[in-house]
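Notebook p. 47: complex prediction with adenosine-5'-triphosphate.
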Amino acid sequence: MSELTMDTLVSLCKRRGFVYQSSEIYGGLTSAWDYGPLGVELKNNIQRFWWKQMTQLHDNIVGLDAAILMHPRVWEASGHVENFHDPLVDCRQCRQRFRTDAIPEELWAKRQCPECGGQLTEPRQFNLMFKTHMGPVEDSSSVVYLRPETAQGIYVNFKNVVQTGRVKVPFGIAQVGKAFRNEITTKNFIFRTCEFEQMEMQFFIHPSEDGKWFDYWKAERFEYYQKLGVRDSRLRFHQHGPDELAHYAKVAFDIQYEFPFGWKELEGIHNRTDFDLRRHGEFSGKDLTYLDDGRGERFTPYVIETSAGLTRTVLTVLCDAYDEDEAEGEKRVVLRLHPAVAPVTVGVFPLVKKDGLAELARDIELGLREEFSTFYDQGGAIGRRYRRQDEVGTPYCITIDYQTKEDRTVTLRFRDSMQQVRIKIEDIPQAIRKATKEYRRV
Ligand code: ATP
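Predicted complex, structure tokens below:
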């Protein structure tokens, strides 16, 4: 494994259609990115994988898709209007703006700019929420915010789901969606952006069981990344110290990944206590307590939250998958993506275009489309076609040759080992299913 740099990854993402700079033809917009043909497939596959793991594989978690725009009182109740601030400083010389926690300690002590060495101002609090107006009049009564997290859409629907969803505490509500934060320090590609996507699950429990459920979700969520194919050696927990804890949290752990720019948060697991439901109860005047028939008790549930970034997971998966080795005496770039999330599952190639091989290959590809994401390629030397698929993480390739016409067998080639096996056409789907189920990164 060679050391990956962000420049290498960003250039691969652009070249192969994973991620483009937003509005690039106008010079780009800082910290906003567009997902290209392969990127959107990867992102959707990760989202589906999360959704399955977090809803369908549990019998006590249901889904929700709440609106991005919410009543402005939501953000007062949640504490975001009051507390969702970053302390910012400006450099008097180069005029750049920084989050104080992004400045190395020794420079901060001297109030010195990390870029030009100039003098920094004292910190000012800067609210991270994007504010806009709903309706034709721009006055304070029409203010709405672009949600900075998806979680609040879940809390304000707690009562609806309890009344209509046939759920009983303990249960969870899961949601995937866009969130917006007016981030100032936005380097490192799609790691921290102003518009991003979150995959959050809020698990409602009896307050006496918070320790048990916190441990449960902490273990589940770590295992999830292993199932997604992320290497253990690049994952770790980080517990929030008292000065790091958010205003709503009793206990918080991050799952961190070792990115090329260091260990950083990938997901947060938080014990939010009854903070959110209690506050929404107070601010809305509605009763958000829960009557537990079994216990014969009414209480405000505690919440264990698992909050992952979808777009940040895309970056994680790409960083983790990137590898270089050698094939036929040449350097090979290969994305060792888990087959369950790879944008293309199977590439199908005729060895040559003539003698009916192209038509036969097309037929085979069409037969696989219903179940797998396929890519047909008949251009160039076969080695080049393999290389192109390796570089975008396609785990399997099928090659149709003259022997296929005689005995209806094809070559199935595995991306990671480059091993090739000869199998019957009708056995292709089963071979792919089996290899995907048993996939272990070498
Ligand atoms: P950070 O300390 O990195 O700003 P946070 O602690 O504010 O993150 P949370 O509010 O816990 O993050 O958000 C949960 C998850 O949402 C994060 O673990 C991350 O994966 C994702 N996330 C948060 N902010 C951003 C962002 N600006 N861009 C991309 N993903 C983000």
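Notes: The longest helix spans residues 37-56. Residues 60 and 171 are 5 Å apart (CA to CA).
Next step: compare against the earlier run before touching the bench.
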